[in-house]
Design goal:
Distance between the termini: 28 Å
Number of domains: 1
Low-confidence stretches: none
Structural class: mainly alpha
Strand content: under 5%
Helix content: over 70%
Number of helices: 4
Shape: elongated
Mean pLDDT: 91
Number of strands: 0
Length: 154
């Protein structure tokens, strides 16, 4: 059972660091850039600063996924994904999948090449909306997981 204690601790720490970073970007960084940077430089400024957080986010997302998978496999909890009472299990997986796709597929293959060509479609306003949606999804999944893992069933 010790491996489950370690996995849960790693999982909580990874989600805390990952989601804390996402909330910082959403509520502090993006508004600060919008308020202090000329519109034609906002995306470049965001990209410059965000580049320091992206590797950390990737590591935290991978650790959260690996530890979550380990706990699900080890405790044989796959059935929870089919039970509506455990909606938060699916919510966690969906949030994790969204970030995996963004960090490991969309950013390197689509977003970064677009930014190098001038951005166009990518604006700070659109990035703010996406970050708010992802932040709220993470908040709902995290709150549901904490409540659900402590016995709350709707």
């Amino acid at each position: 059972m010790d491996d489950l204690i370690v996995a849960r601790a790693l999982h909580v720490a990874a989600v805390l660091a990952w989601m804390g970073g996402v909330w910082f970007v959403t509520l502090v960084l993006l508004p600060a850039i919008a308020a202090t940077t000329p519109p034609d430089r906002q995306i470049a400024e965001f990209h410059r600063i965000e580049g320091r957080f992206a590797p950390q986010a990737m590591a935290w997302v991978l650790l959260a996924g690996a530890s979550g998978f380990w706990m699900t496999w080890r405790m044989e909890l796959w059935w929870r994904f089919a039970d509506p009472a455990y909606w938060w299990m699916s919510a966690m997986l969906l949030v994790w999948l969204a970030f995996m796709l963004i960090l490991f597929v969309a950013e390197p293959l689509i977003i970064h090449p677009m930014l190098k060509r001038g951005g166009g479609f990518i604006t700070l306003g659109r990035m703010r909306i996406l970050h708010v949606v992802l932040s709220l999804g993470g908040l709902i999944a995290t709150a549901g997981a904490v409540a659900g893992s402590h016995g709350w069933v709707p």
